[in-house]
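Fold it.
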Amino acid sequence: MTRLLTITALVLITMTTGAASAATFKPLAPEEAWNSTPIFATAPENDPRVFVVERGDSGTHKAEVRIIKDGALQSQPFLTVPNVDVSVERGLLSIAFAPDYKTSGRFYVFQVANGPGDTIDPSGTKGDIRIVEYKRSATNPDLADPASGRLVIKTPHSAGNHNGGWMGFGPDSLLYFTIGDNNSPSTNAQDLGNLYGKVLRIDPVGSAPGEYTIPPGNPYGGLFDPNPGARGEIFYYGLRNPYRASFSNVGLVIGDVGAGQTEEVDVLPTDTASGQNLGWPTCEGFCDSPHPEFTEPFFTYEHDYSGSPAPGTGNVIIGGYVIRDPDLTGLTGRYIYGDNNRSDLRTLNLSVPGGDPVDPGLSVNRFSLISFGEDSLGCTYVMADGTVSRIAADAAAPTACPHEINVPDPPDPPVDSTSPKLKLAGKRQKLRRKIVISATCSENCSISAKGSVKAKRHGKKKALGFKFKRATRDGAANTRVKVVLRLKWKALKRARKVLRSGRKLRATFRAVAADPSGNRVSDKVRLKIKRSPKKR
């Protein structure tokens, strides 16, 4: 892309960073021990085992759920799921154990079907997203009963990607799961008549195929719902591809994969159901113009498609978990997440408005990060580099989670009350499509910037009716970063026309600096813009 408008700014911020961590990875098994790619990890309540979902084999179209017991991978699968399509981003994507699993033996799998021909749904089609109930073996707790499979809910899904793929039981003992927009951003995510681009909530208990219950607290589909045709399973909507999510003390935390500009973390309450709309595809990340009907993201970061993406950027967010492990000093209580286009992981304090991204010092191979996981003992897992690893306090820690059952949820990390400092400066610039604000933080920071343009003629100013798209960046301590703001091509053409008419252009740029505790301050700078030289 062409080099565009450049503004130099100095941002001085006083902040507090999280404590340094000596955390490391403890692989649960070598890469060759897995029969296909590990893609999810979880555990039943009060159960010391870890259950790992393998995505599936493209040759046999079978996927497996494996057990880690006492830190060792068991050779015999807990469950083998047939008829799984693993093309593009499909597969066996997650598993969830009922809160009463110890007595009922019920659990659920999120599967993309390879087509008809199995006993679960003989009339199914290739690409169907299915939630299937299974039960534990009556004789062996390390085995499931493959004959117990019962289709709970399904929806056709023609795209190989944007499947969503996460599910879990919430604090209300109901099953939540996510489905992507079927790679059709024009209508699906905003259409309450389908399940695409949504978070769904159901009570999956039933006996017949396709039997489940819509909870009375769901926002749509009730007797007096003013939205005719709305699906009652919908809990939230307006998402693009909510591939991974998790529950925390502040609600449901979703990593929603963006399109060409922005990745986002959404934090949504589960104690009240108002049917929040996250805004896709009208908005990607924060909206450029006011949309009070949308719920804004908790945190966003911008894309970087370069060979060495800049700090705080990425292209494919992988949502994670709030770390409960009390041994992980400096990380406990923080939300860990990553990006498939980066090697370094990051953490957030979900009690800090707007987020406070901090590098925990944990890295995987670039493009290898698949997912995160959590067991019932308070340990956190990472699926990357072809295997599953526990995040451990240090290299001497055991592979198995060292804690007892019922590790309490961690308290919120402390919040600092010191306000940051912000100073911006700039000079006259040439009119091009991008502006780049150079910013330096004294400690880890988050910078958000936006801009607008006005025309001036005969001493009078007139708004042109367009703005620069808001941009955000993470800033590491004492490291200069560039915050890139962009004009749409249509707006750029209008601005060029104004300059050719003899009028002057003035741009106003505003930046907000936020420290890890949510303290923030704003400043602005006004600049003159001149015509760019013609290309020869």
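Residues 489-500 form the longest helix (12 residues).
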